[in-house]
Specification:
By secondary structure, this protein is mainly alpha-helical. The chain has a domain of 86 residues. The chain has a two-stranded parallel sheet. The longest helix is centred in the C-terminal third of the chain and has 17 residues. It comes from Candidatus Segetimicrobium genomatis.
Length: 148
């Protein structure tokens, strides 16, 4: 079910238009839907992302029942177009504020690895797995691992 994911603004005004105009940037973005050292991110936005505080407003989504504390990453509409039947299973569960991808990435995985970790979570879900992920989230946030 589509919903508005609450976040602090971390990008410059017109970021989407800038992406549309820059072919190289667009190609890099298409691979993972994230950019390391994204030139569209503001100085304050870099700090918010590095500290993961940009995700804090999504607690509103959790309280409204649109998201869970733990689960697969929320996706944007452009990602949905890439999905086949296997990936569409990700849409059967609530997206999470944190998840396996956020706590397990020691390097930046590509998009397929991200989807695989989210699928693993769905296939192996348990209260214990959620607790493990929640317990590993804080050290990941403090270390700034994977935040960009």
């Amino acid at each position: 079910v589509p919903f508005y994911a609450w976040k602090f603004r971390t990008m410059v005004v017109g970021a989407d238009q800038r992406l549309a105009r820059d072919r190289r940037l667009r190609e890099r973005f298409a691979a993972t839907y994230k950019l390391v050292d994204d030139p569209r991110v503001t100085r304050m936005g870099r700090w918010l992302r590095r500290t993961s505080l940009d995700e804090l407003p999504q607690l509103i989504n959790v309280l409204r029942g649109e998201m869970s504390l733990v689960g697969p990453r929320p996706i944007v509409e452009e990602e949905l177009r890439k999905y086949g039947a296997w990936e569409r299973r990700l849409l059967c569960v609530r997206p999470g504020l944190t998840g396996m991808w956020q706590v397990l990435r020691h390097h930046q995985p590509d998009y397929a690895q991200r989807v695989s970790l989210d699928m693993y979570y769905i296939d192996h879900w348990s209260v214990g797995l959620d607790l493990k992920i929640l317990l590993r989230t804080l050290p990941s946030v403090i270390a700034g691992r994977g935040a960009y």
